[in-house]
Amino acid sequence: MKLVIDIDGVVANTPKKMFQIYPQWDWSYNNFPEYIFNMFRDPEFYLSLEPIPSSLSFLLKWKGLIDFVFASTRPIPPDITQEWLEKHGYDSPIIYHVESMKEKYLLTAQLEAIGLIDDAPQHFAPAPFIRFIYSWPYNSQYTTDVIQLFPDGKYQSIYRIHNLKDLEDPVSKYLQLI
Fold first, then answer.
1. Distance from C-alpha of 57 to C-alpha of 27, rounded to nearest angstrom
2. pTM over 0.85
3. How many domains does the chain divide into?
4. CA distance from start to end of the chain
């Protein structure tokens, strides 16, 4: 069972760092001054992020039972993300760098993953896998209703989660079924 996971805002507490650096942040990624956008290109910014503790503990608990695949649009080399994950105890991560949100969706489908966990609402277009919205104020307006029924009987679901531990019960049930 594969599960694709975004890094920033899901595993790394990027929003916390944003408020430390730019206290007037309004949860929008569209109104930053140029120095903030430049900071996003600096590997040290990413290496200095704190993990979200519940996310990290979930990943470490379920590693081996679930094939976690990390996918990110970070404008830095993937080895920086690998260094960050390993620094926080997650050894030998599988990381894909994608150039766009659309590529993250395509990757999830190509890997035949059961789902994608992301905090970016633009990732939640119809797709043949389950989407999980990692809740933050900047994505609270997006719905989590069943969207579409596919001809093969699969349904299109979006679930809102507040931390990765919210997945423990559904994952346990799913693993009992296979």
1. 26
2. no
3. 1
4. 9
